Amino acid sequence: MPQKTPIDQMMAHQSIRKFTHQTVSQEIINTCIKAGQAAASSSFVQVTSVIQVNCAQNRAALAIAAGGQSYVESAAVFLVFCADLQRNQEICLRQHQQMPTGYTEQTLIASVDTALFAQNVLLAAQSLGLGGVFIGGLRNQPEVVTKVLKLPKQVFPIFGLCLGYPDQDPGQKPRLPLSMVLHQEHYSNDNLTHLANYDTQIRHYYQKRSQGRLNLTFSEHIVKTLVKEARPHMLPYLHSQGFCTR
Ligand SMILES: Cc1cc2nc3c(=O)[nH]c(=O)nc-3n(C[C@H](O)[C@H](O)[C@H](O)COP(=O)(O)O)c2cc1C
Predict the structure, then answer these.
(1) Which of 135, 161, 162, 168 to mutate to test ligand 1, by most ligand atoms within 8 A of the CB atom?
(2) Which of 76, 82, 111, 188 has a Cα at 20 to 30 A from 2?
(3) Could you give the number of structural domains in the chain?
(4) Which one-letter DSSP state was computed for residue 238?
(5) Does residue 209 lie within any of the structural domains?
(6) Do 182 and 73 have their domain in common?
(7) Which CA distances in Å does 45 have to 64, 108, 112, 180?
(8) Binding site membership of 18 for ligand 1 (Cβ less than 6 Å)
(9) Is the pLDDT of residue 1 over 60?
(10) Is the minimum distance from the CB of 183 to ligand 1 under 6 angstroms?
(11) In this predicted model, what pLDDT tens digit does every residue of 74-89 receive, in sequence order?
């Protein structure tokens, strides 16, 4: 079989939540992490740490913290991607210099860098035949995650990533049409023109995937998802870890 080109592989993405029992070698995990490290880094600050969680007890605690997501336990590999300003703070202190912390911009940099890192990890894993799903659900209970992983101040968990050999083929979720996301020269408020078609497409997608049980358009999904409080504990939590204080 001809190998997929990198762009074919990106376009074939689907989140995988069911895995075979096949283990993943540490060599493969290390290769994927190195691919993550190869991502661009804002001002080359390299503000990501990844925690590989192997201990079943800790996996169970994290699965609960993420809202009862069982694949956090069943995946061959579970990684937690953290924004980490602590390492650079330590480097500055060794040079007898204080590093000013708490700036919201630093949180943005660390979050953006870490997301780029993690997407590279997933792409590398997919190129080696693995599948996976990100676990933002860890931010349901960030204090628990912080305790389980013994995260110091200036480090916070952005999301987890389950990886393993796929035991499902759930089908790809159709994305918004290009005309709704690519604007030319300036922001166009005419960006809902193709929404009705897309709503129909997503309704068909959900119906097929759920054998008719789920009857939901994209618009309905958005309203259901976004018209409620979004983890209001995050700001006090970030403050407690020393982020976004100014
Ligand atoms: C940052 C981030 C956090 C996510 N968190 C979760 C999660 O906690 N649980 C889950 O099942 N899926 C999670 N997902 C997966 C999304 O639900 C999924 O990417 C989306 O529905 C699109 O489906 P696809 O990835 O199969 O194309 C997350 C995705 C991202 C990018």
Answers:
(1) 135
(2) 76
(3) 2
(4) H
(5) yes
(6) no
(7) 33, 13, 12, 34
(8) no
(9) no
(10) no
(11) 999 999 999 999 999 9
Edge-first strand order for the sheet with 155-164 is 48-52, 77-84, 155-164, 131-135
- For residue 188, what pLDDT is reported? 87
State whether 12 and 130 are in the same domain: yes
Residues 155 and 200 in one domain: no
- The pLDDT assigned to 190 comes to 76
Task: Return the residue whose CA atom lies nearest to atom 28 of ligand 1.
Answer: 134
At residue 111 the predicted structure's pLDDT band, cuts being 50, 70 and 90, is very high
* Arithmetic mean of pLDDT over the chain: 95
Mean pLDDT of 213-217: 93
| Ligand 1 midpoint to CA 206 (Å) | 15
Are 152 and 191 within one domain?
A: no
Domain contains 157? yes
Q: Do residues 108 and 204 share a domain?
A: no
Whether 69 and 90 map to the same domain: the answer is yes
Return phi, psi of residue 134, to 5°: -75, 150
44 located within any domain: yes
Query: Does residue 2 surpass a pLDDT of 90?
Result: no
| Domain coverage including residue 155 | 6-171
Residues ≥6 apart with Cβ < 8 Å to 121: 32, 33, 35, 36, 50, 79, 161
Residues 38 and 65 placed together within one structural domain of the fold: yes
SS (H, E, C) 129-148: CCEEEEEHHHHHCHHHHHHH
Helix (H) or strand (E) holding 195: helix 195-209
pLDDT of residue 203: 96
